[in-house]
Amino acid sequence: MSGPIRQPSRTPTLADVAAAAGVSLSTASLAFSGNKPVSEATRGRVLSAAGSLGYTGPNPLARNLRQGRSGVVGIAVGPLSTAFRDPAALPMMDAVSQVLEDEGLGLLLMGDSAEHARLPLDAVIYQICGQETWAAYDDLVARGVPLVVVEGPAWPGATFIDIDHRRGAAEVATHLHDLGHRRVATLTLQESHPQREREAGLREVFPDAVRIGRCVSDLTAAQELTSAFLSEPTDVTAVVCQSDVQAAAVVIEARRRGLTVPDDLSVAGFDGVPTPWLDLELTTVVQPFAEKGRATATAALHRIEGEAVDDVVLPVTLHVGASTGRVST
Amino acid sequence: MSGPIRQPSRTPTLADVAAAAGVSLSTASLAFSGNKPVSEATRGRVLSAAGSLGYTGPNPLARNLRQGRSGVVGIAVGPLSTAFRDPAALPMMDAVSQVLEDEGLGLLLMGDSAEHARLPLDAVIYQICGQETWAAYDDLVARGVPLVVVEGPAWPGATFIDIDHRRGAAEVATHLHDLGHRRVATLTLQESHPQREREAGLREVFPDAVRIGRCVSDLTAAQELTSAFLSEPTDVTAVVCQSDVQAAAVVIEARRRGLTVPDDLSVAGFDGVPTPWLDLELTTVVQPFAEKGRATATAALHRIEGEAVDDVVLPVTLHVGASTGRVST
DNA sequence: TTGTATGCGTTATCAC
DNA sequence: GTGATAACGCATACAA
Fold first, then answer.
1. What mean pLDDT, rounded, does chain B reach?
2. How far apart are CA A242 and CA B258, in angstroms?
3. Residue ranges of the HTH lacI-type domain (chains A, B) (predicted)?
4. Does A144 touch chain B if contact means CB atoms closer than 8 Å?
């Protein structure tokens, strides 16, 4: 064999392939990218040269630098164990990753450590489920990274994807009012945009709703608060929760104390997530999770392309289940 | 002001900063990376020049190319909604992301689409929960990307992190045998490495265990299989499941049919995940999730450094809860 | 359809 | 402690 001596330990580059195929570097590049037409013959030569050299395709790192993109979108969710414990997070993220994957982009999980500022991200989605942390925000804005905020606070420069928390909460409250309830209690989430909106919606109908407490969307935490509340005498006939997990906790704890749902106590949730371990269909406000995820990912894609993107507020729908009933007289 | 005319619309580079600070490019680089000593005075000049130019630090894309690393580790989990529906996935991934984050690395979620082969990943973790798909495997191997397989099949060249499924399953089976059980049924996972091992452990003690069925670790699916099984008369006194979610389903369905657990039927699980919505502590095999995650991430880090890494098999522990009892005579 | 020539923005190697 | 210079591997504008 002729030709220059091969360095066996170096991974081949596109230049090596081009040389072996007897074409120019740019032609070899086009043979892989398909960004411009290449004759079938030369493409064949390039690909077979690549094959025999063990060339596995253009180095993503080099392409990224050249194109100024990493192909990776970050999603800030906070600590994974808490972020995903909330069943409402999953279907939404699933849709996000699906849309991105279809475009060949990857989804990178970010805690909140601001460490990830050193990673090359084409855009960042904030889906922090109420934990309103800024951490890396300033840095990302300074670097011009497009930001999409899901149900979050109004950060300047970000695109917002939201649902109509307030209307949903008002609808479920109206539903209870129609059933004759007048004295209701509420279990709220931690201080956050969704919490504020949902509570505001509730108080449009029940301005004097008693707050049982405030906790994350966690069964155990919610059950403890409910237990403390129900251990004192109360004239409340309904509990409005800000998540289905909380509502399930109220149902479980109420039953544990001998109450019947909904005869003795009506319970409403929010989200519309499956609770197959509960033998009772919750009355709740159903979010369009998939649509929310798609809207989020699509917004990120558009912003990466430099396009202007409108904020989105998606509608929710009241689902009347078996956990709410007419108030007993 | 003197000097060349500034292009206002171009984001500043390290060269711009160096020029503005009156130092060389390499010195400016060192001022940011700290890879070599730089006098405090010049570092100050560099940083203040960066500040006034709005330079936000070295471009990650360029650094990645130069260093041959992306700082991103992929984790193949399949479709998110199924991957995370299994509560066993969370604490493990949490530990993985924690370890990586401490090293400044990011964690990228991969479906199984092989699309992600075009992304620059420093290593890939396969945590596919029994879905034994190869998809991108060949490609990754060809590109020399280090692979870490968690509870997976024996892929050549990969590092393996596993738990002692077989011993755990045998221990829970022995526990039941000690309680007098002789006729047991089992609910198994989909065909996979964990399933095979766990079932083998069970059959060391109960070679003739009846298989109720095979399903993913999903409450509804498991409940349906159990319902079908219990609708026929049976002399089985215990059901051994391969996940806690399955076990919870068996408990729920057994009770729905008027059986008492564990008096009429003993039920055992696997994993040791919290099931706060079940008012019964499951007898189960507890996995060291956090340790598994740390071992996985650590293995990935070492392999990225080019070091050899030993496979890991972590021990499990039997936890006797209230879902198993002495067989009634 | 193909080839030539730049430059993406760094970091690392060397000399000073 | 600092500076000049050479890659890193590729995609594109432009010329042929």
1. 91
2. 34
3. 12-67
4. yes
Would you say residue A2 has pLDDT above 50? no
- Mean pLDDT within A204-209: 98
**CB pairs below 8 Å between A and B: how many?**
140
d(CA B138, CA B190): 24
pLDDT of amino acid B155: 84
From B85, B113, B120, residue closest to A61, measured CB to CB: B120
Closest approach of chain A CAs to the CA of B96, in angstroms? 10
Greatest alpha-carbon span in chain A: 98
What amino acid is encoded at A35 in this protein?
N
Q: In what order do the strands lie in the sheet with A159-163?
A: A312-314, A159-163, A147-150, A123-126, A72-76, A106-110, B106-110, B72-76, B123-126, B147-150, B159-163, B312-314
The HSE-up count of residue B240 (CA atoms within 13 Å, CB side) is 31
pTM of the predicted structure, to 2 decimals: 0.92
Residues 103-132/A with CB < 7 A to strand D:
none
Name the token pair of B56. 């936000």
**A138 and chain B: CB distance < 8 Å anywhere?**
no
Segment B261-296, tens digit of pLDDT? 999 999 999 999 999 999 999 999 999 999 999 999
For residue A67, say whether its CB is under 7 Å from any atom of strand D.
yes
Q: Give the position of tokens 């990857």.
A: A106
Distance of CA B199 to the CA centre of its chain: 22
* Distance D9 C1' – A58 CA (angstroms): 8
| Residue B48: predicted pLDDT | 97
For CATH 3.40.50.2300, the residue range(s) in chain B are: 72-163+289-315, 165-287
pLDDT band at residue B86 using 50, 70 and 90 as cut-offs:
confident
pLDDT-derived band at A6, boundaries 50, 70, 90: very low
Contact between B199 and B186 under an 8 Å Cβ cutoff? The reply is yes
Q: How far is CA B78 from CA A83, A200, B75, B146, B148, in A?
A: 18, 39, 9, 19, 15
Query: Inter-chain contact B90–A110, Cβ cutoff 8 Å?
Result: no
Q: Which residues of B touch A279 (CB under 8 A)?
A: 252, 256
Per the CB < 8 A criterion, the answer to whether B46 and B27 are in contact is yes
Q: Is the pLDDT of residue B226 over 60?
A: yes
Rounded distance between C-alpha atoms, residue A180 and residue A329, angstroms: 9
- Kindly state whether B35 is in contact with chain A, defined as any CB-CB distance less than 8 angstroms: no
Q: Give the integer Cα–Cα distance in Å for B176 and B182.
A: 8
B215: closest CA among B183, B249, B184? B249
Fold of A72-163+289-315: Rossmann fold (3.40.50)
Task: Please give the CATH topology (third level) of the domain spanning B165-287.
Answer: Rossmann fold (3.40.50)
Contact yes or no for B119 and A71 at CB 8 A: yes
How far apart are alpha carbons B147 and B141 in whole angstroms?
A: 8
Residue B284, token pair as written in the block: 């189960």
Strands (E), B215-311: 238-241, 266-268, 284-286
